[in-house]
Automatic annotation (TrEMBL):
It is a multi-pass membrane protein. It comes from Camelus dromedarius. Residues 1-15 form the signal peptide. The chain crosses the membrane at residues 59-85, 124-143. It is found in: Membrane. This is Protein cornichon-like protein 2. Keywords: Membrane, Signal, Transmembrane, Transmembrane helix. The keyword Cell membrane does not apply. InterPro entries: Cornichon (IPR003377), Cornichon_conserved (IPR033466). GO terms for biological process: vesicle-mediated transport. SMART domains: Cornichon.
Length: 145
């Protein structure tokens, strides 16, 4: 499950990098056909990003529930801040009337795109550290018996 979280975040990073590259590429900006193609590409990427949000948040919530049931208080304490952030981010979606987290128009704002990309890099670091912590804990538990 942790590997799937890492995969989701890597996919987010690649998608945001593609959006940033498309945002910075001024080729054929005066061409209406190219503009429609770029907008379709942005909408496609945003649609795929939205499909990964609920599974990522659900898997992380499942991890927290398993740590709670197993009385792994340190591990749960390390994961609770990200769980609260996920809940806050999900329930405080954009207030402009759109019900989506990654809107094709708002995501192309340079500040929002930078924020989303930094968020993805931070999540990748957290999930990688968590993966190795879980691996270490598993090996330690197996060796101690």
């Amino acid at each position: 499950l942790c590997a799937s979280l890492i995969f989701f975040v890597i996919w987010h990073i690649i998608a945001f990098d593609e959006l940033r590259t498309d945002f910075k590429n001024p080729i054929d900006q005066g061409n209406p056909a190219r503009a429609r193609e770029r907008l379709k590409n942005i909408e496609r990427i945003c649609c795929l990003l939205r499909k990964l949000v609920v599974p990522e948040y659900s898997i992380h919530g499942l991890f927290c529930l398993m740590f709670l049931c197993a009385a792994e208080w340190v591990t749960l304490g390390l994961n609770i801040p990200l769980l609260f952030y996920h809940l806050w981010r999900y329930f405080h979606r954009p207030a402009d009337g759109s019900e989506v987290m990654y809107d094709a128009v708002s995501i192309m704002n340079a500040d929002i795109l930078n924020y989303c990309q930094k968020e993805s890099w931070c999540k990748l670091a957290f999930y990688l550290l968590s993966f190795f912590y879980y691996l270490y804990s598993m090996v330690y538990t197996l060796v101690s018996f």
